[in-house]
Amino acid sequence: MTPPLEADPYENDPGHWGASLVNAAEILFPCLDAAGANSVAEVGAYAGDLTGQLVKWADRAGAHVIAIDPSPESQLVELAEQRPDLELIRKTSHDALRELELPDAVIIDGDHNYYTVSEELRLIGDKAPGA
């Protein structure tokens, strides 16, 4: 069972917009467990709020975490420096997804506009088995 979230989901969200999927962690981690994910990429890691929880999950699950963000905040950079099991890719989602070997799960937690998300989904779909 996934332990409860031990972080303030609004730490880097002063307006409390709730745009990060860290707010759905209690649903997200059991889904990753049920899928048997051994690798996960987070698109749009920003300050690393969800990333921090992902690496804790990865410790327990024996998984590999990839964080994608073209301009990561200092908190995420520090987390990546402290965690050699966390791969930080400093590229746009489109560039990173074109080059990345598809992990078991991809969490899209970045720019939520139609063009960006639809292109991310297309890039992921093109690499998916049976595509």
Explain what the structure shows.
It is a single chain. The longest helix has 14 residues, at 114-127. The protein has a four-stranded parallel β-sheet, sandwiched between helices. The protein is α/β, with parallel strands linked by helices. Helix 2 links the parallel strand 1 and strand 2 (64-68). It is built from five helices and four strands, in the order H-E-H-E-H-E-H-E-H. It is globular.
Please give the structural blueprint:
Elements: H1 25-35, E1 39-43, H2 49-61, E2 64-68, H3 74-82, E3 86-89, H4 93-99, E4 105-108, H5 114-127
Parallel strand pairs: 1-2, 1-4, 2-3
What integer value in Å does the Rg equal?
A: 14 Å
Percentage of residues assigned to helices: 40-55%
Going across the biggest sheet, name each strand in turn.
3-2-1-4
Average per-residue pLDDT, rounded, comes to 88
Keywords:
131 residues, alpha/beta, four-stranded parallel beta sheet, 4 strands, globular
Describe this structure in a few short sentences.
By secondary structure, the chain is α/β, with parallel strands linked by helices. It is built from 5 helices and 4 strands; from the N terminus they run αβαβαβαβα.
